[in-house]
Amino acid sequence: MGPYRAMARIAWRNALAYRVPFLMSLSMMVFNLVAMFALWQALLGDGNSLAGFTWPQMKAYLLVSFFTNCLVSTFTDFAMASRIRSGAVAVDLVKPVDYQKSRLAEALGFALLEAAAAATVCAVVLVAFGGVPLPSPGRLALFVASLAAVVPLKFLIAYMCGLLCFWTQNYLGISLARGAVSGILSGATVPLAFFPAWLRQVAEVLPFQAVTNTPAMLFLGRNPGLPGALAVAVQLLWIVALWWLARRLWHVAVRRLTVHGG
Amino acid sequence: MHTLRVYRRSLGAHLRATLEYQADFWILVVAAVLTQGAGLLLIATIFARVPRIHGWGVWEVVLIFGMMVLAQGTSELLAEGTWGLAGLINRGELDRMLLRPYPCLLQVCSSRVGMNAFGNLTVGGGLLVSALAHLDVAWTPGRVALAAVLLPSALLIKVSLTVVANSTSFWLRGAINTFAGGLDQLGELTKYPLSIYSVGLQAVLATALPFAFIGFFPVSVFLQHGRLAWVGLLTPLVAAWCVFLAVTVFSRGLRRYESAGN
Amino acid sequence: MASTSALVEATGLVKEFRRPRKAPGLAGALKHLVTRRFDVHRAVAGIDLRIDEGESVAYVGPNGAGKSTTVKLLTGILVPTAGEVRVAGVVPHRDRVANARNVGVVFGQRTQLWWDLPVHETFELLRDMYRIPAADYRRSMDRLCEVLEIGPLLPVLARKLSLGQRMRADLAAALLHEPRIVYLDEPTIGLDVSVKDRVRAFLRQLVDDGTTVLLTTHDVGDIEEVCRRIVVVDEGRIRHDGPVGVLRDTLASNSTVRFQLAAPAPLHLIRERLPDAEVTTGASERDLVVRFDRTLRPAGAVAATVMGLVEVRDLRIDDEGVADLIRRLHDRDSPAALNGAG
Asked: Does chain A touch chain B (at least 3 C-beta pairs within 8 Å)?
C-alpha cells in the first residue's frame, strides 16, 4: 500500500479523534439547512417562483448546497492549524512524503465519512419534505463528476487557509472569514441568480462558485449540454491552478519556518 | 459591588492581554463582520424580490437579526469563559477556582474574552440603530421604557442560555461540549421570523429553549407586530427564569463535581 | 473549635467515589441506563489528622493512596462522604469563602495562574478577589519578589513561563494573601536540581517564619529539608505518624548488604544462620539481599557468615534513609515495611 493510501486510511481512523469538531460543524449545517428550508418554503411554498426557482427546485438547490458544505468541512485545516501552531509540523517536514499530497490524501479519506453523513441527512430531509426533480442519467453522471471535483477544490482552499497559520496564531478568525467569504461567493448562502449583476460577475470569475454553484446548476439542469461539460472543465482548471498556487504558498511558508524558526 | 468590580477587572485583564496581538484582533473583527454580512446578504437579496415574509418587512427582520447579533456579542464579551468549562472540568482545573473567595460561576465566565465580541457588538449595534431609524418608531416615554426593559432582558437571556448549555459539561464528560455547541446553533434559527417554522419547532424555541425571546418576541411587542406581540411582554420574566435556571444548573453541577472528584 | 491550637482537625474522614459499572460498548451503556450499578471505591477510609499551628507535615504514600483526595477534602474542593473537617475553625466545603482566606494551595502539576494573562495581572486579580488592603499587598509583593525573584516574570504571559519560573510565580500567588496554612501538592515535580533547591529553601524559610505547611510529595529531599513531621498514608488510611527525625534515627539502625554470588543463593541455610535478618534474592537468584539491625550485629559479621556458606563475587553495604522507607512503602507486598518505625 502506498504512503498516500495509508494516510487516507489513517484519516479514517482519526475520524474518532475529530468527531467533536465534525459533529459541531455538521450540527451547524443541519440547523442552517432547517432554517433555509423554512425560510424558502415561506417564500416559495404557495407556488411562487423567485429568480427562476420554484419550491421543488430550491429544495434541490439547498440539498446540493448542504452536501457540498459538508465535504472537506473540518478535518484538513483544523488538523493542519493545530499542528502548525504547536510546532508539530516539523515532524511532517522530515517525513519522506509530499506535504500537500499527504494532506489531500487525508482530506479524501475523511471526505468519504463526510459524504456518508451528508447523504444520510439528505435522505432524511427527502423523506420528510418530499421529492425534488431528479436529473436524467447523463446529467446525473456529470453532476457526480462535478461533486467529486468539489473535494480537491475545497481541500485546496482550506489548505491554503491552513497555511496562513504560519503567519498568524489566530486560526479561528481565518476559518470564520473563509466560511463567510466562500459561503457568499460559492452560492451556498444565496443562489448566484439572486445576486445583483456586479456581484454575480465577481463570483463567476472566482474559484468559489465551482464549489456549490456548479454542481447545483448541473443537478437542476440549468446548463444542459456543452455548457455543463464546460463547467466541470472549469472546475478541473481551478484545481490545477490552485494546486500550483498552494505549492508556491507552501514554499514561502516553509522558508519562513526554516529561516525564522517558526 | 466588589463582586462586579472583580468581574470587570478580570475581563479587562483578558482584554488587555488579547489586544496585545493587534493582527489577531483585526482578523476576528473582519471575520465577524463577514459572517454577519453573509446573513445580511441573504436578507437583502430576499427582500429585493419580495416585500414581506409572513408579514415581516425588511427592517423589521433586520431588527430581529441585529438583536441576535448584539446578544451574541454580549455573550462573547461577558460569558465566553463558559465555553471553556468542559475543558476546565476535564483537566481538573476547576479546583483552583473553588479555592478562591469569589463565586465560581463568575470566575468561569470571566476567564476569557471572545474576540468576536467587538465585531459582533459593532455590527449588532449598527443594525439595531439603522433598523430603528428606518422603522419610524414613535419614541413615546412608554416606548423608551419598554425598550429599556426589553433590551437588557434579551441580552441576559442569551448569556444565561449559554451558561445553561455549557453547564451540562458537569454531566457530559469530554474536553469540548458538543451538545452546547449544537444548542447554540439551534438558537441561530431565531434570527428569522419565528412563524416560518413548524408549530412544534416554534413551541420549542418559545418555551423549552426560549431563544425566540432574544430577538423575535421583544421585537414583536416593541413594534406591536402580529397576533402574538403581547408574548414579548413576558421577556423580563423569561430573563429572570433563564438567570435562575443558569445559576441552578451551574450550582447543581458544581455540587456534583464536589462530591464526584474528577 | 475543638482546640485552641489545632489548625487542622479531621476526624473519621471518609471519601467514597461511585464509579458506574459498565460493560464495554453500546449494549453495556444501554444496560447501565436500566440497571445503574456502581462500584464503590474508598479513596479515604477513615482518617484522623490534627495539625497544630506552625507544624510542617509531609503527607506521603504511593500513587492512589488517597493523598490528593485528602488534600481536596481539607481544602473544601471535595465534600466528604463521612467525618468532619475543620480548618482554623471553618468547615472548608461549607464556608468556602472564609476558608479560602485562611489557606493557600499549590499544585505542582497545575498552575493557578491565569494562563492567558501576564503574571502581574494574576496577582492583581487575586488581590481584588481576596480583598487584600493596598499596604498589605505591597508589603507581600515586595517580600515575594525578593525571595522568589519573580520581579522579571511579572510582565510575562503565564503560558510562556518555564516550569521553574511558573512554580515560583505559583508559590507567590498562593502566598499573596498570607494564608495561615499552605497545602503543597508535589511542589518540586519536574523541576531541575537548582530550582528544586531554591523552592525547598523558600519553603523552609516559610516554615521557620511560622506558616503551617502540609506537603504531599514523592521526593525525599522535600521531606527531609522542609518537614518536621511525616504522615504516611496507604489505601486511604494513616499507617504512620511521627517526627521525621525519629523515623530517620530508627531506620538508620537498619542496614542492607547486597551480595553478588557465584551460584544461586542457598536461602534456607542463610536464614538459619541469620534468624533476625530479612533475607531475599534480588534481580536474579545470584543476587542476595540481607537486611538487618546494625545494633544487633555488625555488617562484617553478616558478610562473614554469608561468605562462609557461598562464594561471593561482590558486595555493597547500604544504610537506609527515608528514601528506603518510601520505597518499601510503595512496595505493597511487604506489610512489615514499617516495623520498628512507629
From this structure: yes
d(CA B261, CA B259): 6
Q: Indicate the residue of B10, B91, B98 with minimum beta-carbon distance to C96.
A: B98
Nearest CA in chain B to C115: B111
- What is residue C183's three-state secondary structure? strand
Residue B184 dihedral angles phi and psi, to the nearest 5°: -60, -40
The answer to whether residue B7 neighbours chain C at the CB level (below 8 Å) is no
Count of domains forming chain B:
1
Alpha-carbon gap, residue A14 to A30, rounded angstroms: 23
Please state, in angstroms and as integers, the Cα–Cα distance from residue C240 to each residue in A93, B143, C49, following that order. 55, 74, 11
* Long-range Cβ contacts of C195-200 (<8 Å, 24+ apart): C195/C163, C195/C164, C195/C167, C195/C168, C196/C221, C198/C168, C199/C167, C199/C168, C199/C171, C200/C225, C200/C226
ipTM, interface predicted TM-score of the complex: 0.87
User: Which residue in the block uniquely carries the three cell numbers 495581572?
Assistant: C121
- Of C40, C44, C55, whose CA–CA distance to C14 is shortest? C44
**B191 sits in which H/E element:** none
Q: Do B178 and A23 touch (CB under 8 A)?
A: yes
Give the three cell numbers for residue B189. 434559527
Rg of chain B over all Cα atoms, to the nearest angstrom:
19
List the one residue out of A110, A88, A112, A86 whose CA is nearest residue A99: A88
One-letter-per-residue 3-state SS of A129-197? HCCCCCCCHHHHHHHHHHHHHHHHHHHHHHHHHHHHHHCCCCHHHHHHHHHHHHHHHHCCCCCHHHCCH
Contact call for residues A125 and A56 (beta carbons, < 8 A): no
Alpha-carbon span A59 to A53, nearest angstrom: 9
Task: Determine contact, residues C119/B11, Cβ cutoff 8 Å.
Answer: no
Cα A154 to Cα A73: distance, rounded to the nearest angstrom? 8
Quick one: which of C207, C200, C206, C254 has its CA closest to C224? Answer: C200
The chains found to touch B (3+ Cβ pairs under 8 angstroms) are A, C
How far from each other are the two terminal CA atoms of chain A, in whole angstroms? 33
DSSP state of A56: H
Sorted by where each starts, the structural domains of chain C and their CATH numbers stand as: 6-248 (3.40.50.300), 253-338 (3.30.70.100)
Phi, psi at C237, each rounded to 5°: -130, 155
Crossing angle of helices A171-186 and A137-163, rounded to 10°: 150
* Whether residue C2 has pLDDT greater than 60: no
Task: Write the pLDDT tens digit of every residue in C110-156.
Answer: 888 988 889 999 999 999 999 999 999 999 999 999 889 999 999 99
pLDDT digits (tens, 9 = 90+) for C288-313: 888 888 777 788 888 888 888 888 88
Return the H-helix or E-strand segment holding B215.
none
